[in-house]
Amino acid sequence: MLERKLQDAEVPVEEQNNILKHLEKKETEYMRLQRHKMGVEDFELLTIIGRGAFGEVEHVKAERNLLAEVDSAYIVKLYYSFQDEEFLYLIMEYLPGGDMMTLLMRKDTLTEDEARFYIAETVLAIESIHKHNYIHRDIKPDNLLLDRSGHLKLSDFGLCAKPLTDNTSRLGNPPASRRTQQEQLSHWQKNRRMLAYSTVGTPDYIASEVLLKKGYGMECDWWSLGAIMYEMLVGYPPFYSEDPMSTCRKIVNWRSHLKFPEEAKLSPEAKDLISKLLCNVEQRLGTKGAHEIKAHPWFRGVQWEKLYQMKAAFIPEVNGELDTQNFEKFEEMLPSKDANFVGYTYKNFEIVNDDEVAGIG
Q1: Which residues are catalytic?
Q2: Which UniProt keywords apply (predicted)?
Q3: Less CB within 10 Å around the terminal CB: N or C of the chain?
């Protein structure tokens, strides 16, 4: 079939032979990779660049399932998954640009143009998983990674789920905070990294309906988008408090606590978009689909189809594909033991060509 097509296309005989030899070589590599049982001995450990607060087997299963199913330029690519007697492994694309949390810690705030670029790419990332009927449920700056060109990809799908409902519970009203924007920013910067790697984590980006354990759906991810946009422009999350419980109380009582500091000088369009994301589910933009958010005036002029081809708002300093300077350093790995389970092993055969595997993490 291929030979006939090459002949019909009047490809020179010598070039035909070269093409067929190349394909035969790739087919051999493909079959060898199919038969090869992947293991940790196939990889070289360079350094630890992060540690999650959640390590349960069910979370790893959820992440593996989504990564194997969703193919998007805005989602971190999964290359392999396998297990041994002690650990479950996900071999993923390595993005040397670091994460959005680190960028925000270095810059304090972004301009509206910079924020617009990264919020737009986050919209496309969230939209891509929603199209596969997944809710992320843990969207935060830590999980927004940058490639070497500064483009954004969504990661960490350990808490992702299909739409579900739950029982209702409520939290009481909190006392109002009277801190200035600069005081809030200073306290947030001091505690941000510690909160990110604590066992409890930070609830700053969790939607009110999730905390109230009401029925919730994909709309909860758009709340998180609003909280991240606020942090990009103001310097700290909208409901930040000294302790997680106070933050939760502020979130469920968002009407009393969503404030825009005058010093931040947000545009009316930015305030409007944030207000339409950090609100009741019934009024929240995105409830009927990502197109509602894309149509908001704050995004006027954004070329959604060309975002990934555009120059990024921030170009990270990267010295080689394996450079880890944009990540924190960690010294040890914590042991964990769980039983093996069937159906975990995965290979992405689009990466048989070594040239396509420049970054693996």
Answers
A1: 138
A2: ATP-binding, Kinase, Nucleotide-binding, Phosphoprotein, Serine/threonine-protein kinase, Transferase
A3: N
- Contact residues for 323 (Cβ-Cβ < 8 A; gap 6+): 96
| Each residue's pLDDT expressed in tens, for the chain with a length of 361 residues | 666 766 667 677 778 778 777 777 776 765 655 555 677 777 777 777 666 544 554 555 555 565 555 677 888 887 777 777 777 777 778 888 989 998 998 898 999 999 999 999 999 999 988 988 888 888 999 899 999 999 999 987 555 565 544 433 333 333 444 555 555 555 555 555 554 444 335 789 999 998 988 778 889 999 999 999 999 999 999 999 888 899 999 999 999 999 999 898 999 999 999 999 999 999 999 999 999 999 999 999 999 999 999 999 999 888 887 787 887 665 544 444 444 444 445 445 454 444 444 444 5
Q: Which token pair is 106?
A: 């270095």
Q: How many residues in the chain? A: 361
Q: Determine whether the annotation assigns residue 77 to a binding site.
A: yes
- Please name the helix (run of DSSP H) or strand (run of DSSP E) that holds residue 294, with its range, or none: helix 290-294
